[in-house]
């Protein structure tokens, strides 16, 4: 570089040596040399800096193809750009809140508003005060409460923002619909908090907080709330409902003619071919295909199937702690998929793409596209649960019999008669979409519209039944296969448990069965100090996390740690039928890991004996453990009855042995909860 070849002729003129120099007259004066050096210096500088920038350009160019286009993180700018005045945010874990948001955003144009639905995780929520910049604007929040009063994963940052910031929301109009479940202690905690906090910050509530109860009829709660919410919006903004009830498609069907099968999704959740080339980290969008190492039946008798599965996660870099949950993506029953195809006269192997008509939307497709109808119905769509009312409403247009059309529309309405009909004909009868199509022969929707309307098939969560310390390469599941007869004479089969049940360790063709999974962290944790006593209450499959806890306490003991009392209350129907993990539990007991094993056999005698009856029997000892020995209490299993009954039993113990009044007892247990000494992992 420094040889500067093009300067050479000047320095060594070819004429130089041959031409006789003029005597006394030097060839270059000092000034010449100075100017010359300056030029050379500048040229060198220019050249070097040019080289430098040349080096950086290819670097930059190389990067461009892998940089994904910047997503719009400003919902305000997006609303302005797309001329919207209503944004509907969802805090969603299982997809229901997201679905409700989509419905509200879509409904908006019937009520003179222009809506868009948005994931708070994708946008800068600190811009909320700026909503006032948009005329007649409104922010609606559909907030699900997860776990023990927690925000959903995608609403965590927004929740933190609400808690930590005192920004002025003056001029911001809002409304909140909460999605919760009454069987849980913190019913609709997130909905309540959002509603209260937005008002505290100066926002204006346009309509009252809606509180959906999934233990009752969430769909009905939402429809009823919506029915009142829209008139309130119209009144507030002085707009009129258009009364236009026609169905509006959100996606257009595209059937590609030139198909490269390598570009067609076959069940992946995110990246195309992610099941063929697996790359950590593994999460909801990128599940790990774990091989099924063990799949055995746990119960010795009875008409149910209780199972223990072990998923091999070696090499996945997945870590877990006992108490965490494993999420599993199930696959729908082939026979239901085929039957839907048959009824709709559809070629299920057609490759299609459903493309969002709203080009500005972050959600380009309702599920990964392009794909086939078969893949969509098998991996991406929920075809087992009763369809929601909006699905029935939109499908009504395809019923050729006016009576069917009328029935479907009525069920989607907020009239008491319609609600009653939806409750009995759809929910109580557990009619899934196939049953609806079968029982209404005049209903013949197009398959692409049906695929647009059905909600996404969600991952199922199970409490991990092993310890990550003892089995770092294995995740265990303990579950009962869900199967029952419905009032229409059909058999309802739980999607995930039936699919898991049929997972054989090695298939006929020698392949190992796999399960797409990822781990979700939980708060259900053993005490930090191993010497603290633990009392675990887990009837039925509620035993799951405690198998992990016991393995871990045993492991600590082996390490020479001072491990405190470890007590289990397990409950099952009969000793000879469903005493899950009997052998393992007795071995833990023999090894001194399990210091007390209490089992309530509910059906081995005349009257019922449940875990809470045994708790009551040991009330003095339990009170001592709780009140003086810093014991941690854990409850896992059924939320609806068991967890509540057990909690009431603890109130009784605090009253009877601790001498507290009922109010004091309730406050006492609440305090234990806030201290993390009374933990629940319950399901309904
Ligand atoms: P199950 O076998 O039906 O019931 C277990 C025992 O609990 C039976 O002896 C039952 O007695 C008894 N029981 C019924 N009502 C009770 C009450 N109010 N209080 C105390 N005990 C009561 O249980 P399961 O089929 O395993 O289901 C248990 C629940 O745990 C399910 O809701 C499940 O979803 C949930 N769960 C599952 C996991 C998992 O990872 N797989 C984890 C946590 C929780 P009777 O039937 O004789 O009345």
Automatic annotation (TrEMBL):
EC number(s) on file: 1.6.2.4
UniProt-listed InterPro entries: CysJ-like_FAD-binding, FAD-bd_FR_type, Flavdoxin-like, Flavodoxin/NO_synth, Flavoprot_Pyr_Nucl_cyt_Rdtase, Flavoprotein-like_sf, FNR_nucleotide-bd, NADPH_Cyt_P450_Rdtase_alpha
An annotated Gene Ontology molecular function: FMN binding
Ligand binding (NADP(+)): 304, 541, 602-603, 608-612, 645
The keyword Membrane belongs to this UniProt entry's keyword annotation: yes
Localization annotation: Endoplasmic reticulum membrane
Catalytic activity line of the entry: 2 oxidized [cytochrome P450] + NADPH = 2 reduced [cytochrome P450] + NADP(+) + H(+)
Domain Flavodoxin-like, first and last residues per copy: 86-230
Protein name, as recorded: NADPH--cytochrome P450 reductase
Main function: This enzyme is required for electron transfer from NADP to cytochrome P450 in microsomes. It can also provide electron transfer to heme oxygenase and cytochrome B5.
PROSITE patterns according to UniProt: FAD_FR (PS51384), FLAVODOXIN_LIKE (PS50902)
Transmembrane regions: none
Family under the similarity heading: Belongs to the NADPH--cytochrome P450 reductase family. In the N-terminal section; belongs to the flavodoxin family.
Annotated cofactor note: Binds 1 FAD per monomer.
Segments forming domain FAD-binding FR-type: 285-527
GO cellular component terms, A-Z: cytosol; endoplasmic reticulum membrane
Organism of provenance: Salmo trutta (Brown trout)
């Amino acid at each position: 570089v420094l040889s500067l070849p093009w300067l050479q002729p000047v320095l060594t003129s070819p004429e130089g040596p041959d031409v006789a120099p003029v005597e006394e007259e030097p060839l270059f004066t000092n000034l010449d040399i100075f100017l010359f050096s300056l030029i050379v210096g500048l040229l060198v500088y220019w050249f070097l800096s040019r080289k430098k920038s040349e080096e950086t350009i290819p670097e930059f160019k190389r990067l461009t193809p892998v940089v994904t286009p910047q997503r719009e993180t400003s919902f305000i700018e997006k609303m302005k750009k797309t001329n919207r005045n209503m944004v509907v945010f969802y805090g969603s874990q299982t997809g229901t809140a997201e679905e409700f948001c989509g419905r509200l955003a879509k409904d908006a144009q019937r009520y003179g508003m222009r809506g868009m639905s948005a994931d708070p995780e994708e946008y800068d929520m600190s811009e909320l005060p700026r909503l006032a910049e948009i005329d007649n604007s409104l922010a609606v929040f559909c907030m699900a409460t997860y776990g023990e009063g927690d925000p959903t994963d995608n609403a965590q940052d927004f929740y933190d923002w609400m808690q930590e910031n005192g920004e002025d929301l003056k001029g911001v109009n809002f409304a909140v619909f909460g999605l919760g479940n009454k069987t849980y202690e913190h019913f609709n905690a997130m909905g309540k908090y959002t509603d209260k906090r937005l008002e505290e910050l100066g926002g204006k509530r346009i309509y009252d907080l809606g509180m959906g109860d999934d233990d009752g009829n969430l769909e009905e709660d939402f429809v009823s709330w919506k029915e009142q919410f829209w008139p309130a919006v119209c009144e507030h903004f002085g707009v009129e409902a258009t009364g236009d009830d026609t169905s509006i498609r959100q996606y257009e069907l595209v059937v590609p003619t030139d198909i490269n099968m390598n570009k067609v999704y076959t069940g992946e959740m995110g990246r195309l071919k992610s099941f063929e080339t697996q790359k950590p980290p593994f999460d909801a969008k990128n599940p790990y295909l774990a091989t099924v190492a063990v799949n055995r039946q746990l119960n010795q008798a009875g008409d149910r199937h209780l199972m223990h599965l072990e998923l091999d996660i070696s090499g996945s870099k997945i870590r877990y702690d006992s108490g965490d949950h494993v999420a599993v993506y199930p696959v729908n029953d082939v026979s239901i998929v085929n039957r839907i195809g048959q009824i709709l006269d559809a070629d299920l192997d057609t490759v299609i793409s459903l493309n969002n008509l709203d080009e500005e939307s972050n959600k380009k497709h309702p599920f990964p596209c392009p794909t086939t109808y078969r893949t969509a119905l098998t991996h991406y769509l929920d075809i087992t649960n009763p369809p929601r009312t909006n699905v029935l409403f939109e499908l009504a247009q395809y019923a050729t019999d006016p009576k069917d059309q009328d029935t479907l529309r009525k069920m989607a309405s907020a009239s008491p008669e319609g609600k009653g009909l939806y409750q009995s004909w759809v929910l109580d009868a557990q009619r899934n979409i196939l049953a609806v199509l079968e029982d209404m022969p005049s209903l013949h929707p197009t398959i692409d519209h049906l695929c647009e309307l059905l909600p996404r098939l969600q991952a199922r969560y199970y409490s991990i039944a092993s310890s990550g310390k003892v089995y770092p390469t294995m995740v265990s599941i303990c579950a009962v296969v869900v199967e029952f007869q419905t009032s229409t004479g059909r058999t309802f089969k739980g999607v995930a448990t039936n699919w898991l049940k049929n997972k054989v360790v090695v298939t006929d063709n020698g392949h190992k069965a796999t399960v797409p999974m990822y781990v979700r962290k939980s708060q259900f944790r053993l005490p930090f100090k191993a010497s603290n006593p633990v009392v675990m209450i887990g009837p039925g499959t509620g035993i799951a996390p405690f198998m992990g806890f016991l393995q871990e306490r045993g492991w600590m003991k082996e390490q020479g740690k001072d491990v405190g009392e470890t007590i289990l209350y397990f409950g099952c129907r009969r000793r000879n039928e469903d005493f899950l993990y009997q052998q393992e539990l007795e071995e833990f007991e023999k090894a001194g890991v399990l210091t007390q094993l209490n089992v309530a056999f509910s059906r081995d005698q005349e009257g019922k004996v449940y875990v809470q009856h045994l708790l009551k029997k040991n009330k003095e000892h339990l009170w001592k453990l709780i009140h003086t020995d810093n014991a941690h209490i854990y409850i896992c299993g059924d939320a609806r009855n068991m967890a509540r009954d057990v909690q009431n039993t603890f109130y009784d113990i605090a009253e009877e042995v601790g001498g507290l009044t009922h109010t004091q007892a309730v406050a006492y247990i609440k305090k234990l909860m806030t201290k993390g000494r009374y933990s629940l992992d319950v399901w309904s």
